[in-house]
Design goal:
333 residues, alpha/beta, Nucleotidyltransferase, domain 5, five-stranded mixed beta sheet, 10 strands, binds 5'-O-[(R)-(carboxyoxy)(hydroxy)phosphoryl]adenosine, binds zinc ion
Length: 333
C-alpha cells in the first residue's frame, strides 16, 4: 500500500489531498478571496494566505482520508511553475514533513499535474493523446505519450487564455478572477453579436494579447457613444468575447490533430471549466469522430488531487527529490 500526501500552493489556492495506491481519499481546497479587488493575484498576499491555510488544510485532508501521519510513505508538492512566495510555502512544509517523518519527497510540475487530472477517475484517455492545457498562467498544446512523458507542441507567445478572460473581465469592472463570471453572463447572451479579431499566428502557437486590446478599444468606442453600453449589453458582450476566445483555442486543436494524426483529445486547467469550451470540444469530437475527454469540474481549477495522482506515477518510477530541492517558478515541462 502506498500512501501519499500531496500539497498544491503554486498560485492562490491552498490544497492538500491524500491518495492510497493512486485512489484519491480526500481533496481539500482553500480559495483565497483577498485578491478579488486587486484585479489579479497579489503575490505577497497569496504567500501569507498560504501560510495561514496550509496546516488546517493538511489536517483536514488527513482526517477526511482517515490517515495518520505515520502511515504516509511520501509527501508531494508542486515544485513549479508558479509564484515563488506561494511555492515556497508548500515546498517548505513538504520538506519539513519529509524530514520529520523520514519519508520520500516528490516534486511535481503543476501543468503536468493538470494533464494527469484525467487519471483521477474513469474513463481515462489512452496514450498518446493531445491535451489543451489552459489556465491563468499557461495555454499549451501538450502531446502526452505516457504518464510522465509530455511534450509541448504549441503554446501562447504572450497572455494565457485565462489571463485574457480575467483582464477583459477587469476592463468591464468584474472582481478577480473574472473568467467564471464571463461564463455565467454569457449563458444568456448572443455569441455572434460582436466580432473580435482572432490572432493570425501560424502553426500551433497562440496569442491572446491582440483580443484583449481589441476588446479594450471596442468598449472604449462603444462607451463614448453610450455610457450604459456595458450594463445594457452584458450577456452579448460576454458571450461574444467567450466565443472568440474558444474559437481560437479550438482552431489549433484541430490543427494539432491534423499535424500529429492523434485523434484522442483532452482539456485541462482552470479554463477547462468554461462551458463554451467544454461544449465546443465535445462537438468537435462528435463532428470528426475524435475521442474527447473533459475533466470533472472539481479537477479543472487548482487542486491537490492532481498533484497526488502525478506523485503516484513518480513514486512508481522512484523519482524522488532530496531535501535540498527548491521551488522552480519557471519550471519546464
Ligand atoms: O488552473 P487554475 O485554477 O490556476 C492556474 O494555474 O492559473 O486556472 C485559473 C484560471 C483563471 O484565469 C480563471 O479565470 C479561469 O481559470 N477560469 C475560467 C473559468 N473557471 C476558471 N475561465 C473561463 N470560464 C470559466 N468557467
Ligand atoms: Zn493551475
Amino acid at each position: 500500500m502506498t500512501v501519499i500526501l500531496a500539497i498544491e500552493s503554486s498560485c492562490d489556492e491552498t490544497s492538500a489531498a491524500v491518495s492510497v495506491n493512486g485512489i484519491i481519499k480526500s481533496n481539500i481546497v482553500a480559495t483565497q478571496s483577498v485578491h478579488e479587488n486587486y484585479g489579479g493575484v497579489v503575490p505577497e498576499l497569496a504567500s501569507r494566505a498560504h501560510q495561514q491555510h496550509i496546516i488546517p488544510v493538511v489536517s483536514k485532508a488527513l482526517n477526511e482520508a482517515n490517515i495518520r501521519k505515520n502511515k504516509l510513505d511520501a509527501v508531494a508538492f508542486t515544485q513549479g511553475p508558479g509564484l515563488l512566495g506561494s511555492l515556497l510555502v508548500g515546498a517548505s512544509f513538504a520538506k519539513s514533513l519529509a524530514l520529520a517523518l523520514n519519508i520520500r519527497l516528490i516534486g511535481i510540475h503543476h501543468m503536468q499535474a493538470h494533464v494527469l487530472s484525467h487519471f483521477i477517475d474513469q474513463p481515462v484517455p489512452g496514450f498518446p493523446f493531445i491535451c489543451l492545457t489552459v489556465s491563468g498562467g499557461h495555454t499549451q498544446l501538450v502531446k502526452v505519450s505516457n504518464y510522465l512523458e509530455m511534450e509541448v507542441i504549441g503554446e501562447t507567445r504572450d497572455d494565457a487564455v485565462g489571463e485574457a478572460f480575467d483582464k477583459c473581465a477587469k476592463i468591464m469592472g468584474f472582481p478577480y478572477p473574472g473568467g467564471p463570471l464571463i461564463d455565467q453572463y454569457a449563458k444568456q447572451g448572443d455569441p455572434k453579436r460582436f466580432k473580435f479579431p482572432s490572432s493570425d499566428i501560424a502553426g500551433l502557437d497562440y496569442s491572446f494579447s491582440g483580443v484583449k486590446t481589441a476588446f479594450l478599444y471596442f468598449l472604449r468606442d462603444e462607451l463614448a457613444r453610450d455610457s450604459e453600453f456595458i450594463v445594457s449589453n452584458l450577456p452579448d458582450i460576454c458571450a461574444s468575447l467567450q466565443f472568440s476566445l474558444v474559437e481560437m483555442l479550438i482552431a489549433k486543436v484541430s490543427m494539432a490533430v491534423k499535424k500529429t494524426g492523434i485523434q484522442t483529445l483532452a482539456i485541462a486547467g482552470g479554463v477547462s471549466a468554461n462551458s463554451e469550451l467544454r461544449k465546443s470540444m465535445t462537438a468537435l469530437g462528435v463532428e470528426n469522430g475524435w475521442e474527447v475527454f473533459i475533466p470533472k469540474f472539481e479537477y479543472c481549477t487548482d487542486n491537490a488531487a492532481m498533484i497526488a495522482i502525478a506523485a503516484h506515477y513518480k513514486f512508481q518510477k522512484k523519482e524522488f527529490l532530496s531535501l535540498d530541492a527548491s521551488p522552480l517558478p519557471r519550471m519546464k515541462m
